[in-house]
Amino acid sequence: MTKEKEARKFEEFGGVLGCCVTYIATPLFFLLMVHCYHDLNSNLNEFTWANFGKEILNSLVKIEIWKFLIYYKILVAAIYALPSLHTVEGPATPSGKKLKYKISAMTTLMIFLGIYMYLYVYDSDENFVDLSILKTDFFSLMAVSTLIAFLWQLACIIRSFFLRDEDRNIQATSGNVIYDSFLGYELHPRITELFDVKIYLYRYSMVAWLMIAVWKIGEVWKQQTNSDEKILFWNPEIIIMCLSHIAYCYAVYFGDEASCPHMFDIKYEGLGFSQTFGEIVIVPFIYTLPIFLVRDFPDHGHFYSFRIIVAIWLLVGGIVIAGASNHQKTKFRISDRKNSDIPADDVIEAVTSSDRSLYCGRLWGWSRHPNYLGEIMTSLGWSLLCGFTHKLMWFYPIFLIPLVITRAERLERTSAEKGSTTWAKYCQKVPYKIIPFVY
């Protein structure tokens, strides 16, 4: 490794200072945002730091919040721990070992949908589980989840003292606990041979995301049946929003779980703050924000019909591109290319034994990261459905677009630094990173 690379190795995310600021600023910012939206009904004039701190402290001592989250975590873990008939082999780790991954996300989803249907039909008085907590105590759920994310980080720090060198994330060996814990000490943490902690957290977040969309449909339907107001008829954007969230979660995860071991954060990054806080807090509480906005602040002006039509096109196109690109890459990875129907022109073959073949067909022939294009289109579609009646309507794409661009650039840099001849040929053949003919 050159001196230049050595000097750059411990400067990800702005080095120690950047990681420290992110540790503090990111949870604080998102907690402030959700507090103002859910607890203050977006009335910023009512905000005080004293009340904000009091709400956090009160949230942390609510037993029903802890019970709800702990039961959910245990249930997701218990289902994940069940034997699975289907496993896939992941990419080689830095030590050369290939780990196996369970394919059972659909089982988890079906069980949760069954539980929800039972609660919806037979537990109308909410004696068994009070799902109204998702509406009345959303901020409290987020505050406790934030603490749980930091407890995960603490557990990872303690676990790091017992790691073998081959299991360590080489990017998190600076010796500084803030920097190393932020990037994640361990690349592939496992409790048992098939219980992968990163995959568990990913499943935890995706099930929560999809189930919040399902719950919102049920909640609005109940409101409609208990009144004469035809909410869904006059506000079709609500049903479009919820169904598109469900479709997106299915397309990128439940319908193609085999692609997960090859995802950037699963394959290359350690279990650090970005994944623990991201999966436990950001996905369930921030990514679902459009679901609440479209119901709480309907916008029937601002070219309403035109917005809905454009939003539908963006959502259909974005979800199809995100799902199809993952499926195409997964098919390429697991295929036996000697007997495969993948055209030879769609593959850039590895030149050396240390290199790997790259797929450049179909959507991957238009840009090097078409899945990110699908995510960007979907985010814009959700904001168009929401409209312009609230300051947070366009927060999701403003947050997501820099995130996926940064991730794409990091992946590009990681691939380029390996000095891969195959990667250089791929960049030459497919010159656009995300948006064809633009970027």
In short:
The protein has 439 residues and is mainly α. The protein contains 18 helices and 4 strands.
Topology:
Layout: H1 3-8, H2 15-39, H3 49-60, H4 63-81, E1 87-92, E2 98-102, H5 105-122, H6 133-136, H7 138-160, H8 177-183, H9 197-225, H10 231-234, H11 236-254, H12 264-267, H13 273-285, H14 289-296, H15 304-334, E3 347-348, E4 358-359, H16 370-386, H17 395-417, H18 421-429
Antiparallel strand pairs: 1-2, 3-4
Helix pairs in contact: 2-7, 2-13, 3-7, 5-9, 7-13, 9-11, 9-13, 11-14, 11-15, 11-16, 15-16, 16-17
Structure description:
With 439 residues, this protein is mainly α. Helices cover 62% and strands 3% of the residues. The chain contains 18 helices and 4 strands. The protein has a two-stranded antiparallel sheet with strand order 1-2. The protein has a two-stranded antiparallel ribbon with strand order 3-4. Helix 5 packs parallel to helix 9. The longest helix is centred in the C-terminal third of the chain and has 31 residues.
Keywords:
439 residues, disordered N terminus, two-stranded antiparallel ribbon, 18 helices, two-stranded antiparallel sheet
